[in-house]
Amino acid sequence: MRRGPRGRGPLWHDPRVRISAKADYAVRAAIELAVAGPEKPTKGDVIAKAQDIPVKFLENILADLRHAGLVGSRRGQEGGYWLVRPATEITVADVIRAVEGPLASVRGGRPEDTAYAGNAAPLQQVWIAVRSSLRGVVEHVTLADLAAGNLPAELQPLADDPESWVTRR
Predict the structure, then answer these.
(1) pTM of the entire predicted model
(2) For residues 36 and 45, what is the distance between their CA atoms, to the nearest angstrom?
(3) Any bridge partners for residue 81, and if so which?
(4) I want to staple 88 with a disulfide (CB 3.0 to 4.6 A). Which of 41, 72, 144, 147 is the partner?
């Protein structure tokens, strides 16, 4: 049986939602591009320095964002990166999916493709609800929201709730 972090319990009992470094860096880089605007390409090393992201890792992330159609790039002295769509049209979910794939998966597959026997049968609905809850946040926050330092009004109560700041183990 695979174990969770620090050897505690089975891996599938780990209740934490994980945001990978890659996803975190990708969103931070995309925010930098949103702030910079489309007028002049932003150099990768400028983004890396602003967000303390390793340059080589950032280059791979920016390539993923480019392949997903979120970022444009140009080489040369006047080159750099920019968002190909307005920041108001790119969500945090778009960026995460570009670098990580689906927002939520169960054993590497889609929650709706899971099947459980007997008493565990309702678990599929739990995983689908978890995905829906995650979508309810990241599909509603745009890069423009973050670049402006704002959270959509309907999500602010979630961030303001003191219980949201408590890590449970």
Answers:
(1) 0.83
(2) 14
(3) 42, 73
(4) 144
- Angstrom CA distances, 60 to 16, 36, 40, stand at 26, 20, 21
Which tens digits make up the pLDDT trace of 95-109?
A: 999 999 888 888 888
> Exposed (0-12), middle (13-18) or buried (19+): which is 95, by Cβ within 10 Å?
buried
Contact 25, 61 (CB under 8 A): yes
- Both tokens of residue 6? 């620090």
Domains of the chain in sequence order: 19-101+139-165 (1.10.10.10)
Tokens in use for 89? 């049209």
Contact 155, 140 (CB under 8 A): yes
- Identify any residues that bridge with 15 across adjacent strands, giving them in sequence order: none
Beta-carbon-side half-sphere exposure of residue 15 (alpha carbons within 13 Å): 4
Tell how many helices (H) and how many strands (E) occur in the chain: 7, 2
